[in-house]
What we know:
Oligomer: single chain
Shape: globular
Strand content: 25-35%
Distance between the termini: 11 Å
Amino acid sequence: MKIAILMANTDESYFASQHPSDDKHFVDILNNVRSNWIYEVFNVTHQNFPNSLDNFDGIIITGSPASANDKDLWVKELLSTVRSSINKKIPIFGSCFGHQVIAKALGSKIIKNPDGWSFGLVKTQVVADASWLEGLEKETLVYAAHVEQVKDLPTGAKLLFKTDGCDVAGFSIGNNVFTTQYHPEMSRQFMVALTEELSIKLGKELTDNALFSLNKKAHTIQFAEAIAKFFERSSA
């Protein structure tokens, strides 16, 4: 299996330089369940896109501090790439910003979270069946780090996940699109560091609550298995 990772993270801060990049997070969790897969990383924020999507069995779009509503050229090109991959039925998975940009490409609105930042470990409910979700807990624990969300489900999509405060927390379209508002790729260690790094922006109460939530363990391996099954069954 050969996967293109479209790295959308715009953070080039000192903090970012001291931690694994988003593509590395994804490779790490997927190596735990499929050690022989091949990955090629494209830094789309620098206009680095695949010459041909046909060379890949699937696509992953990472998270980002950027917004799917941004007018930057790379965001517009990413939206076009999403539409092209869906038209060609190339399997595509999106996490957080990736989830939002896929929804935006399909006509959905992206809005600010009515309740502000969602941060820390959250419980998301699996509300529909998909073959690749076998083995995933009905109430799955995943990491959140977002201040925007998808307002409405894209036309033709099936809602997969729902969370308090986020009605469209993930969806699928056929066997070729799979998204989550959350960060299955992140580690607890990274989430603790990220929460502390953003503590001033988050405020004391949210920071304390987020750090406390991180005492529980996320369903990282289970979600990695779900992502792997998605690509395998889409490509079969």
